[in-house]
Automatic annotation (TrEMBL):
This is Acylamidase. Coiled coil: none annotated. It is an enzyme of class 3 (hydrolase). It comes from Ruegeria arenilitoris. Keywords: Hydrolase. Pfam families: Amidase. The keyword Hydrolase applies.
Amino acid sequence: MANDDIWRLSAAELAKLTRSGELSATEAVQSAIDRMHALNPALNAIVEDLSTEAQERARALDAQRARGEPTGPLHGVPVTIKVNVDQKGHATTNGVAALKDVIAPGDAPVVSNLLKAGAVVIGRTNTPEFSFRADTDNPLYGRTHNPWGRHISPGGSSGGAGVAVMTGMGALAHGNDIGGSLRFPAAANGAVTVKPGLGRVPAWNPSQTAERGLLAQLMSVQGLITRSAADLHLAMPSLIAPDPRDPFHVPLPWRMAEPDQQPRVAFTKNTFGYDLHPEVDKALDTARDALVDAGYIVDEIDPPNVFECGRLGYRALMGEVLTLMKADVEAAGSETIQRIFATYFQEFPPITGPDLIRALAQRSHHAREWSLFMEDYPLVLSPFLPQPFFRPDRDTEGSEGVHEVLGCAVYSYAMNFLGLPAACVPARLAELPNGRQPINVQIAAQRWCEDLAVDAAIAIEARVGRMTDHLWADLASTG
């Protein structure tokens, strides 16, 4: 295979070839680096080029294999790491200029686990300031652009990750998600992800000087964005490996058990008064039909109240942010991010004081309702967003903009508050007046059952196809 084509391979395809010796780790990594150097200047997805150390690591992996040493499941697979997670010797900037010299003394668990599996980090990806926007732009690195066109935001906060993986700059992209930061970029770029449930992937930054707030601990998770749903089955077992630095990690296998039959799916189009765009409606129908054809039993039924749960969770998170982050945002944030946070507090009035304690207690009520519901319906197919993905900087346009970007995204942040896994997968390529763009749907899953959500995503992808087939053709035609 020509070096020019290696970057096109999925992580699963790459790993099969590198582990068998048909392809060297050096070749796999070099192809991704060449792709990065060709496309990244126009997209600004990767903000720290790690080509030199990536090539050295790839050569070391090839030498180890030549000596007959065991290869990991991700042997030679090129990956990217988001700049808000510690990677030894590199700055954990979180998109904030004031943090540009905060050099990580060690690797975060997610980085350690990827390296132990044989992956090779080729670069670090962009994030908005404080990783707290559903769009990706900041004064330190600048704006990341969506490869589908400038009419669509790249998503956030793992916007650089989503763009990188969809354009072939690495076969896997690390990201994280406190209210949708894996799923927003997946939806924006037509990628696939699964937001893991609480406790699934160990997390901690060696550079941190204080523990995160309780809701940040309960709602934030580490994960991967991919261009093929099957790559999640390949890579997530490595990501969930235990690390004692996370005392609340739950050491369970990726596959709990093979189901006797396909799980029942609750299917809902309920958008709680928000308009459901015709293209999102069609995407949901396609996803439902794909699951039915794959043998799932799909019932149209609403799950427990997502709107009430999601709004409560995000208002509680805003209360914690107001208490613990506001001073940092005012001291180190740009005028833009300060205005956005002020609008967040309008859209999601912060819950503070005794009411915040009550909101945390109420979380168990909502989680219990969902747990009982998922005894009968282990999967829930729903919209991710009720409308096609928004334009860049929409969240800078006052309350109306933030309402479109985050206010309507209750299916997203409700899953963080509940601690449940949720996959996000493209189910349609929409032809809209301002250009084409993918439409993703969400599949929430029973606790500890990320694998079931990924299985369902694979079934949908089998019907719809991979969005890269369309995107790469567009990129090739435009040069």
